[in-house]
Amino acid sequence: MIDFSINESQKMILKSLQDTLEKKVDFKLLNDKAEKKSDYKYGWNELLELGYISMLTEENSGGYGLSFFDFCLMLEKWGYNLCDGPIIENSVSGILTLQNFEQEKFQTLINQLSNSEKILTSTILEQYIQEKSFPIISKVNGEIQLSGKLSNVSFYKESTHIMMIAKSNQKKRVVIIPSDSFEILETKTSLIGEEICDLEISDFHIEEKNLVGINHKINNIIDFMYYHTIISKCSESIGVAEHILNITLDYVKNREQFNNKIGSFQTVQHNLSEMYISINETRELIRYAAKEKYSGEFKKLSLFCKIICDEKISQIAWSAHQLHGAIGFTWDYGLHLLTKKILINKNLGGNISFHSNKIF
Amino acid sequence: MFSKEDLLFKKELNDLIKKHLPVDWQEYPDERIDYHWELSNKIKKSLSEKKWIAPSWPVKYGGLGKDFTQSIILSETMAYNMAPGNDRFGIRMIGPTLLKYGTNAQKEKYLNEITNGDAQWCQGYSEPNSGSDLASINTKGKYDESTNTITINGTKVWTTLAHRANRMFILVRTLQGSKRHEGLSLILLDMNDKGINITPIKNISGKASFNEVVLNNVKVSADNVLGKLHEGWMLALDLLNFERSGIDYIGWGERCFDDLLIYCKKNNLLEKNSNKDKFAYLKSSLESAKIMTYKSLWIKEQSNKIHMEPSMSKILATEINIKIHDFAFEILSTKSIYINDKNKDPFAERIIKNRLFFVSGGILGGTTEIQKNIIAQRGLGLPR
Predict the structure, then answer these.
(1) Residue A216: what pLDDT?
(2) Cβ contact, residue pair A2, B1, below 8 Å
(3) For residue A25, what are the domain limits?
(4) Which site in A218, A268, B36, B380 is 20 to 30 Å from B192, CA atoms measured?
């Protein structure tokens, strides 16, 4: 049966998150962070306090045992409030993937990831679209070792572990490696001040405990991580877009020109209607895909979400700038931070040509 | 999203439709054409036998008492197959409005007539000087308390299928001297009543699917007023929201998309990356528009409030349908532009005919611009 409802507990999660996170949004501090003048971060600790870091962890492992759909709802609020941290990496590549494919082996790590004792980041979006530059697992003097480079790793400094794809005899393997085993080659700063690292690892001694999915088809694990991650990023972007819509609405309802609120002009109203429609259609598609995680259509739906999100959500940001006029063009107003977050997410996980080749 | 029972219903429905349609049916349903009209009546009767015309209606009115999901499947599947016989005015507009506001006698008479496959409804809203500004209508209905009748005079225009319909729901100004939204009534008319003159209007595709309807002293019982006399405006708007989901456009768009994909594969046109990207984008947009149409139909079931979803889904569905047809037109190139080419591909012929016809999608039932006004002012709280 067709059902688009949000149940009471989901509404409660959304409300508790918004109440907690909105207090933290401070465009001045976020601007400082974008200029590397501060290290202002929030989201992770607030989620930890609310218990939502373990949202996807099964109840018998001490978590909430909530669905991927619930997690995506949470990410809408995460994105809305411009939170920063490896929540998607830790929850999707970490908890959800390990629970689905190697629960018994990684139960301790799942528990640690769920209570933030350990924090995992992942390179899945970067590595999935780059068919080259995988670190190599090889046998050296009878010992299995990992060596190579990783590019554009988010949240390296916050994480204790990195989940990544490596190659062994031309076959892909998924491995989890302690972060401190890597050396930083370069630290880059994203458009909004997030640190992104290029890393190198040399002669790291691989053990059985580092390998994920030895008894499973590795491609299933990699696909599982990739498709769940792109849906998650889309959910985050929807939240950002909702924030953009709300500040734009607020602006046009108050800004006066020609002795009228500019929101009374039809062309402005139509632009806002289009933004509202784009948000709604994208959000409903993403939520629908998040609910369909066990259907045979999940992969295709995920790609549809990514394509629509990339196209429509960035357009919302550009429309918002047009409607704001010069004030939105300033650094201090902060609209640029929301726009940049959307652009960053758009550029992760492949473009339409990559996705269309997977669909057709 | 769909249960096994829903999917079985879809399969059986497809089988039933295919049984009636000629092999390789390439025509958009146009009940103006005699054999389309015959097909329409045959299909309606077949659907009626299985109680499938309106599966979500109560059993006593010829439905199956199912939830609205099967009604969605019905509309989408009929549109996908381009099958005549999907009376959206009866099943999706006046039917749900009657269920909500009708008297028992009205429900008994009109709903059963629809589910028996005996009715074709048309909509009497627009007038020569009242299009997007529906509240300015000028067709007058004079109420005579002594005979309990209303005498209607005026002109309605762009009335799709008026020449085939035996019923019309018509918006009339019954309170003399009233203005705008006040004093209007929604009345159920028999198209065989004396004083109704219908003149076909040829449309962009060279056919006359809509008409001008002149009403000259048409007398109708006041028992045929739906809801209260002089208080029809909100009903008229509510009825439009039943229409606005855009579900048909999803079916038509999806059919065009699938056929175009087959055409491109057959002609090695999918090897071109730009085509593949365009297909991917259109498919993604089609899916999101489809989900929105489902949501707008779902939300109508949840509460009586006026929601923004029907306006949004109507825009999305009509626009994606047009984008898909535009892409098909582009792919088919010059194959689409001749009307007397002996070797003409029936698919190419269909595409151009439909593309022209679908101009109407963004106009009827409230233009895209009006929908955006509704969203901005009622949904986003922007000033009027």
Answers:
(1) 65
(2) yes
(3) 8-118
(4) B36
Chain A residues within an 8 Å CB radius of B245: none
B256-312 pLDDT per residue, tens:
999 999 999 999 999 998 999 999 999 999 999 999 999 998 998 888 777 899 999
By DSSP bridging, strand A143-154 and strand A195-205 are antiparallel
Q: Which CATH architecture has domain B122-231?
A: Beta Barrel (2.40)
The whole-angstrom distance between A240's CA and the closest CA on chain B is 18
A186 shares a domain with A231: no
The reported pTM is: 0.94
- The complex's ipTM? 0.94
Helix axes A298-308, A266-291, angle to 10 degrees: 160
Domain boundary at A182, A212, A242, which? A212
Which of A164, A194, A212 terminates a domain? The answer is: A212
Torsion region of B243: left, alpha or beta (phi above 0 gives left; psi -120 to 50 gives alpha): alpha
CATH code assigned to B244-379: 1.20.140.10
Q: Do B288 and A253 touch (CB under 8 A)?
A: no
Name residue B201's beta-bridge partners. Answer: B210
Same domain, A175 and A259: no
Is B372–A280 a contact, with Cβ atoms under 8 angstroms apart? no
CATH of the domain at A66: 1.10.540.10
CA distance B261 to chain A (A): 10
CB spacing of B277 vs A270 below 8 angstroms: no
| Chain A nearest CA to B273, separation (Å) | 7
- Specify the number of domains making up chain A: 3
CB contact under 8 A, A359 and B279: yes
Give domain status of residue A172, yes or no. yes
* Residue A340: its H or E element: helix A335-346
pLDDT in tens, A164-217: 999 998 899 999 999 999 999 999 999 999 999 999 999 999 998 999 987 668
Residues A350 and A293 in one domain: yes
Nearest one of A272, A243, A320 to B382, comparing CA atoms? A272
Overall average pLDDT of the B221-240 stretch: 94
Please check whether residues A76 and A31 belong to one and the same domain.
yes
pLDDT tens digits for range B146-182: 999 999 999 999 999 999 999 999 999 999 999 999 9
Residue B23, Cβ neighbours under 10 Å: how many? 5
Spatial separation of the C-alpha atoms in residues A127 and A135, rounded to whole Å: 10
Q: Is residue A189 part of a domain?
A: yes
Task: Please check whether residues A208 and A320 belong to one and the same domain.
Answer: no
**Residue B5 · residue B45 · CB < 8 Å:** no
Binary contact (B69, A252; C-beta < 8 A): no
| Å between B102 CA and nearest CA of chain A | 27
* A247 within domain boundaries: yes
Give me the helices (H) in chain B, please: 4-20, 34-49, 69-80, 95-101, 104-106, 112-115, 233-243, 247-266, 273-302, 309-332, 346-357, 368-374
Same domain, A268 and A299: yes
Answer whether A353 touches B (CB < 8 Å).
Answer: yes
Tell me which residue in A253, A308, A359 faces B288 most closely, judged by beta carbons.
A308
Q: Is A5 on the interface with B (CB under 8 A)?
A: yes
Give the residues of chain A that fall short of pLDDT 70.
Answer: 215-216
Residue A1 lies in a domain: no
